[in-house]
């Protein structure tokens, strides 16, 4: 392949990646989650969501996620975790982080976003991983209904593990619905070395 053709191909792939709203970064930090159903790794995008990523990494550094569960799993929608222990006790959190959902990243399959209350700027430690293209969660306007949910990374390894969560039966626990009857426990969440090269496209980003 000639240099010119290689350059055109590279530009084309880059344009395709950005058309998905998912950045590709060589030095993006990665966080490996070990859970009772398997392991998965998230790649984070501080250049797109600096406050959100800093907030998330601080919880990782503090080992906040160790021992928490995915307490809300809805097949075809998302898996949410990072806030409750196995006995459905909510862990204390720091001050909420500013909503950064207008960063151009979208709630596509495999993307990770911050969970929040109806207040657009109320996200703390809880996050969710999208199973589907949940475009209704994307930013549309700076209004209560339009702010959307901040996407700040994506699954780059172990999406099969994430998808496995959707097959676990759910019920009601602690006054909440869609709680897996067999707890999906995060045993550890640790920062790992940044990617040495741009991440290859994954099913999560298609």
TrEMBL record:
Annotated InterPro entries: Cyclophilin-like_dom_sf, Cyclophilin-type_PPIase_CS, Cyclophilin-type_PPIase_dom, E_coli_cyclophilin_A-like
Stretch forming the signal peptide: 1-25
EC number of this enzyme: 5.2.1.8
Gene3D superfamilies referenced in this protein's UniProt entry, alphabetically: Cyclophilin-like (2.40.100.10)
Reactions that this protein is recorded to catalyse: [protein]-peptidylproline (omega=180) = [protein]-peptidylproline (omega=0)
Molecular function per GO: isomerase activity
SUPFAM superfamilies assigned to the protein according to its UniProt record, in alphabetical order: Cyclophilin-like
The family this protein is said to belong to: Belongs to the cyclophilin-type PPIase family.
Classification via PANTHER family: PEPTIDYL-PROLYL CIS-TRANS ISOMERASE CYP38, CHLOROPLASTIC
Function text: PPIases accelerate the folding of proteins. It catalyzes the cis-trans isomerization of proline imidic peptide bonds in oligopeptides.
Name used for this protein in its record: Peptidyl-prolyl cis-trans isomerase
Organism: Uliginosibacterium silvisoli
């Amino acid at each position: 392949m000639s240099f010119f053709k290689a350059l055109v191909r590279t530009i084309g792939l880059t344009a395709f990646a950005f058309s998905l709203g998912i950045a590709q970064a060589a030095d993006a930090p990665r966080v490996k989650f070990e859970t009772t159903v398997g392991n998965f790794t998230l790649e984070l995008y501080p250049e797109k969501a600096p406050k959100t990523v800093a907030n998330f990494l601080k919880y990782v550094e503090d080992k906040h996620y160790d021992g928490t569960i995915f307490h809300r799993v809805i097949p075809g929608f998302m898996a949410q975790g990072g806030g409750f222990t196995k006995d459905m006790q909510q862990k204390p959190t720091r001050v909420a982080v500013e909503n950064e959902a207008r960063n151009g990243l979208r709630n596509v399959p495999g993307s990770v976003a911050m969970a929040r209350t109806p207040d657009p700027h109320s996200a703390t430690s809880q996050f969710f991983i999208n199973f589907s293209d949940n475009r209704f969660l994307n930013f549309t306007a700076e209004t209560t209904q339009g702010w959307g949910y901040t996407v700040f990374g994506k699954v780059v390894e172990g999406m099969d593990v994430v998808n496995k969560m959707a097959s676990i039966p759910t019920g009601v626990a602690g006054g909440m619905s869609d709680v897996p009857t067999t707890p999906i426990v995060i045993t550890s969440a640790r920062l790992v070395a940044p990617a040495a090269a741009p991440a290859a496209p994954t099913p999560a980003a298609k």
